[in-house]
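Researcher: For the annotation table, I need structure tokens for Adenosylmethionine-8-amino-7-oxononanoate aminotransferase. Please keep the output clean. Sequence:
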Amino acid sequence: MYNDLKERDKAVNWHPYTQMKTASDIIPIVRGKGAYLFDDKGNRYIDAVSSWWVTLHGHAHPYIAEKVSEQLHVLEQVIFAGFTHEPAVQLSENLLKLLPENQNKVFYTDNGSTAVEVALKMCIQYAHNKGLKKTKILAFNNSYHGDTFGAMSVSSRSIWTQPFGEMLFEVIFIDVPTKENLPEINEIIDEHLDQLACFIYEPLVQGAAGMLMHEPEDLSALMKYCRSKNLLMIQDEIFVGFGRTGKLFATDYLIEQPDIMCFSKGLTGGTFPLGITTCSNVIFDSFYSDDAYKTLFHGHSFTANPLACTAALASMELLLKEETQEDIQRIYNEHKKFAKELALHPNIKNVRQRGTILALELEITQETSYFNKQHERLYPYFLSQGIILRPLGNILYLVPPYCISTADLRYIYQTILKALEL
Ligand SMILES: *Cc1c(COP(=O)(O)O)cnc(C)c1O
């Protein structure tokens, strides 16, 4: 049944972020269990990147499967304009309880990029509804917020966005905050303030840029300045949310509260596509009106799909369990020991960690980039060793599901050490 999947795939499928002509062989996966994926030949792989950062509790988790299966027999989908359902109400209630107290309302979409689109529209229309025209956005250098046009616009310009350059809207890019550069950043904010609709940022870890990290105190200081200037803040927790940083949300490290937050990826434990944009009553109230023109005209066919909401409820239940919190701590501790061991390694330029996220920057002579040759060398090597690690250029990173065993973690570390000697 599976033996010709590769050929059939090649005939009909176009894969994401893939140059189809030069791509190496793809691997048909036939099943998953816990931290493992199994291919059509019976080979086992440790999913050290949580299948593009989404899987929290492992593949084919029986509890999530059971809950979704029950829901599938009750209500699989209903239009979310004019109707509601238990899973969406329960999920919003449960999530808001875990977020900063100023997060009051939940808007559903179906992936990370659309969660960002909604957040941007909320901020731009917030100004519009008040009779103001604010069309510029403030964002970090090296940012990544998704692949739809709005999300791409607020992402750092790169080879990914190059063909669309002239069609992206105007964004003021600033460096991530440090102890030193804050006065400079504040000046840039002041200069553009009357035209800025909002500031959007990945808190603490810039994932797609290669797991670049900044400090909570510095981000808090920047947020404090934005707050003092009434500049709306969109905190993109799509990658870092749901335990990745060692706390439930990156916001738990911060003093200031954002106006809007975006979630996806780990939201459903990695089982269904679902996006959430939460906002404060300050935002919500600017749309709340007898005037039809002040409506947020946005929605997707599958907004708040009951199956996806059910999966998210089950995943969050698992996440809050003591065992899972201990797993997160265990991964943090193991990563930390390994990071210490690596710090002195001659082939390592930089090691950084935030919670369960570990990144190693390999020493190279050329400029660091996504197209760095290290990817071509290391990716197949790790696969041959039964590990899925997708280096971002010369940056190797681990974002494992929380169920990964200590033995498997240590096996990955040993294999990395071997790869460094190759
Ligand atoms: C992955 C990601 C997105 C986009 O989410 P998709 O579901 O892939 O559209 C947005 N922001 C951040 C920080 C991400 O890591």
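Researcher: And a one-line annotation?
Model: The radius of gyration is 22 Å.
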